[in-house]
Amino acid sequence: MPRTNARSVAMIASYVPRRCGIATFTHDLSSGMAEKLFRQPIEKCRQMGIVAINDVEEGYKYGEQVVFEIRHHSKEDYRAAADYLNQSKFEVVCVQHEYGIFGGSDGDYLLALLQRLHKPVIAVLHTVLADPNPGQRRVLMALCDRAGAIVVMAERAKRMLADVFGISGDHVSMIHHGVPDVPFGPTEPFKKRFEVAGRPTILTFGLINPNKGIEMMLNALARVVPDHPDVAYIVLGATHPAVKRESGESYRLGLEKHALTLGIQRNVQFHNRYVSLEDLCEYLRATDIYVTPYRSENQIVSGTLAYALACGTAVVSTPYWYAQEILAEGRGRIVDFGDDQAMARHLDELLRDETERMTMRRRAYAFGRMMTWPNVALEYAAILDKACERWAAVATPAPGKAAQPMRLSLPEVRLDHLYRMTDDTGITQHASFSTPNRHHGYSIDDVSRALIVTAMRYALFHDDAVLKCLHTYLSFVHHARRSNSRFHNFMSYDRRWSDVDGGDDAQGRVLWALGYLAAYPPDPLSRQHCRDLFLDSLPGFDRCRVVRSLSFAMLGCHYFLLAFPDESQVESRKREMARQVVVAFDGQESNDWPWFADVVTYENARVPQALLMAGEHFHDAALVQRGLRVLDWLLRVQTGDDGQLSLIGCKGWMPRGKPKANWDQQPVEVAALIGACKAAYHASNDPRYLREMRRCFDWYLGQNDLGLPMIDFKSRGCYDALTNGGVNLNQGAESLISWLLSLLTMHELQTGEPEVPA
Fold it and tell me: What b/e sequence results for 401-419 when a residue is b if at least 16 CB atoms lie within 10 Å of its CB, and e otherwise?
């Protein structure tokens, strides 16, 4: 019979069949709890549920225990998951925390879920850092502040949590990493399967990467082989995905070559594959000595080392934090980092002395018995009530508390029309309806903004499909550069430049795009490419005095300095650009006309956006206030009587002292306003600008002067303009890119959930 007082639990984590240590841990813990608390297998237990974090768009083929899926780079999914959990039967939510499995900066998308969640939380910390960066510190402290109970898996982690983060108390518990319950026995019966029968066997397991220290172990093995010529060393595990992305299998091939050079190729086996828990246990039961020769102490828990103890395996390890603790009292041996001589000595002693090896095995196995999943499951069950009690003490709603505001959803970011408009040269300027119109060729204005779109898309969603377009656009920009550090703008469809100089706006937009990609590159080489192009091109802007062009370039400098803060020439140039913009305003503005010219024309809000971001960067309150004043004015003069956005039309613009032109209204203005409102929110922390972002965004969805949607959700394009006769049905590059910039910015800041207006 199940425990009558057991509480139902939802786990938020990666989950099998995803190949990830957290996924395996979550499966084993939830299975243990289902069987121990509810006497049911996890597949049939409705009191246990998994909210699975997906790292691929298509997700995985999960079992029924997965009740909700989160695309890890979709912030909206985290909020939707909170809504689901709030309405679900689950009483407690258990977060398996590892920075890398959650989306956002340092995994901060998790906080969007926690802010909206109204149930008790248990935080299980798989990583506690000794020297976290500010983002990592903020995320972990926010998670722990929200949690009614916190679990770490080593006493050292508990001390570090107190010393580094200031988090301590009786709500912090140490519960060992769980392990499978396997019988103790001899290793020889399991060796035949792995073709090491009759041979002393050493094993290292894990995703292969330089931090594993396998080179040191190979050096040690070369010292051992002369006295133990039959010894077999198995390196088990696939190459780490990050290493494989950067350098393919070159690291593994280098290890194989190193073994050849040492003359130990007959003693080393590389088993290049991912293995199930069942297979891993069989490998460990075939192993005489398990080795973890890691190069750094910064590992607070190791599931595979815990499994080695559970299987009663003798262990030799370098002194990373978890190994120091778990191998104490004779459960293993420790050698210094990089000391292959000491490693060889300990291996030789254990291979020679079977009695000592067996004694170590028995100590390890005895310790591992308290770490088996059924025992660990009971320890987790004991803290469920603690989490609920702590939550109840702080979560009692006040009488008359306002209801939760309705969450306004955002459309999915789809790039169908961007791909349609892009060929192997660039993005075509215009379209006839939704079909690219090749007659007009390409513009670096559009290509530069499309480069920002693809960089944003990759930064937010890690969508590899967008990289082909990104590199096509970057190649176009590179090709457009002239010998005088200026850029061409227009190229015909037959790839001939049709201008001599692209003009200052084009130069500014190129710097903006290069700066943005330098700040948010898909890979280090792209960042370096952008740095070189940016610095080579900056002198070509020296004579520019056009305010709008200067504003584009200031945005580029802002992003560039995020990537390269020590580039003093860029810092100085940005400061000078800001001064020039201020001078232009001082010569033209008045109390009722806070503008730098006698006509308000196109992409106007990029100017206050640049002022606001420069003001924040330089800690210049005057720049920030000017930016806010100009933006507030632009929002005011572009608000209709019904409160909806009513843009300045390009057929007449808005001259000083005269009414604005109502037609044609263009999407590029909306994108600029949304970008400026985002900058205003960051500079002022005023939630009014979040609401203004949503009001501007809703222009695309039909909250405009004609009540007509500007998005074609079949083609995924954006109509070129709102005219007095309806929408211009053509779907060119500028309108498309403006829509995508707006949508990505909304997803980035996730203002789909505005606060209730005061």
Answer: eeeeeeeeebbebebebbe
**Alpha carbon distance 315, 418 (integer Å):** 55
549: Cα within 13 Å, side-chain hemisphere: 16
Whether the CA torsion 648, 649, 652, 658 is positive or negative: it is negative
Longest CA pairwise span in the chain (Å): 97
End-to-end CA separation in angstroms for the chain: 53
DSSP 590-616: BTTB-SSSSEE-SSTTHHHHHHHHHHH
Tokens of 331: 């459960």
1-5, 421-425, 477-481, 484-488: range with lowest mean pLDDT: 1-5
Residue at 572: amino acid letter: S
Task: Quick: pLDDT tens for 500-517.
Answer: 888 999 999 999 999 999
Other C-beta atoms closer than 10 Å to the C-beta of 85 total 22
- DSSP code at position 335: -
Q: Crossing angle, helix 524-537 and helix 568-586, to 10 degrees?
A: 50
Domains (ranges, CATH) in the chain?
Answer: 9-178+373-394 (3.40.50.2000), 188-370 (3.40.50.2000), 416-749 (1.50.10.10)
* 368 contacts: CB under 8 Å, gap ≥ 6: 179, 306, 309, 310, 311, 312
Tell me whether the omega of the peptide bond preceding residue 17 falls within 30 degrees of 0, making it cis. Answer: yes
Q: How far is CA 429 from the centre of its chain?
A: 32
Please state, in angstroms and rounded to a whole number, the distance separating the CA atoms of residues 237 and 632. Answer: 58
Q: What is the rounded CA–CA span in Å between residue 598 and residue 589?
A: 9
Confidence check: pLDDT of 612 > 80: yes
CA distances from 51 to 105, 112, 440 (A): 21, 15, 49
Q: Is the dihedral of CA 94, 98, 99, 104 positive or negative?
A: negative
Q: Assess contact for 428 and 717: CB atoms under 8 A.
A: no
User: Which alpha helices (DSSP H) does 147-185 contain, by range?
Assistant: 155-165
Torsional sign, CA 140, 141, 146, 151: positive
* Helix %, strand %, coil % of the chain (to 5): 50, 15, 35
Q: For strand 654-655 and strand 599-600, is the pairing parallel, antiparallel, or unpaired?
A: antiparallel
Give the span between the Cα atoms of 685 and 612, in whole angstroms: 12
> Crossing angle of helices 621-637/667-684, nearest 10°?
140
| Mean of pLDDT values over 495-502 | 91
Gap between the Cα atoms of 154 and 45, Å rounded: 30
Q: Which residues are CB-neighbours of 659 under 8 A, at least 6 positions away?
A: none
CA-derived radius of gyration, the chain: 30
For residue 504, cis peptide bond before it (omega within 30 degrees of 0): no
Picking from 147, 138, 205, 160, the residue whose alpha carbon sits closest to that of residue 299 is 160
- This prediction has a pTM of 0.76
CA angle 4, 9, 11 (to 5 degrees): 155
**Cα distance between residue 696 and residue 689, in whole Å:** 10
- 740-758, pLDDT tens digit by residue? 999 999 988 765 443 333 3
Cα-based torsion angle of the residue sequence 679, 526, 19, 208 in order, rounded to the nearest 10 degrees: -130
Place of tokens 């133990």: 228
Transcribe 426-460 into DSSP letters.
-BEEEEETTEEEEEEEEEHHHHHHHHHHHHHHHHH
Dist. CA 577–CA 585, nearest whole Å: 13
d(CA 77, CA 315): 43
Dist. CA 123–CA 110, nearest whole Å:
12
Residue 472: which of 457, 454, 460 has the closest Cα? Answer: 454
Which residue type is seen at 553? Answer: A
- Distances in Å between the alpha carbon of 341 and those of 216, 262, 291, 338, 351? 9, 15, 14, 9, 15
Q: What is the SS3 assignment for 42?
A: coil
Bridge-based pairing state of the strands 9-13 and 48-54: parallel
